[in-house]
Amino acid sequence: MRLYFRRREEEKIRGINSWTLIYGRRKTGKTTLIKNNLKMDFYALIADSNNAIDLNDNIMKIDDVIKEVKSTLSKGGTAVIDEFQRLPEVFWSMISNWKREGVLVLVASSYGIVNKVFDRNSPLLGLFLPMDNIL
C-alpha cells in the first residue's frame, strides 16, 4: 500500500494557468504532484531523444508527442511534458513559434535546464514562468 501525504504545493499546482516550467531535484515528487493535482488533457514523459510515454503507457515518437501537445494547446487544453530536459533542443524552436494558447507545463529534474531555458539566447526565453522551490 502506498501512502500519499498532502503537500502545501498542491494548491500552487492546481492554480497553474499559464505556460510554466516546474523544476527541482530528482525524486522529490514533482511528477506525482502534477498527476494528482493538475487537470491535464495530454501528458507525455520523455523517455529518450526519440520516444515518450503517455499516461496509458503507450510509447510514442517525439514528433507525434509534439503534434499532440500543439493540438491540445490549440484547443485551449492543458499539456504536460515531463522530463523536458531530455527533449532535443531542436523542438524548442518549434515550441517558441506556437501561439500562446492553452496551458503548457514543462517538468524538469535538472537545475541546468533552468539556465538553458531562461538564457538570453534561448528560443523559450519569456514564454514560461518558473516554478521552483515547490518541492
Automatic annotation (TrEMBL):
Residues 19-99 form the AAA domain. Gene3D superfamilies: P-loop containing nucleotide triphosphate hydrolases. It comes from the Archaea. InterPro entries: AAA_14, P-loop_NTPase. This is AAA domain-containing protein. It comes from Stygiolobus caldivivus.
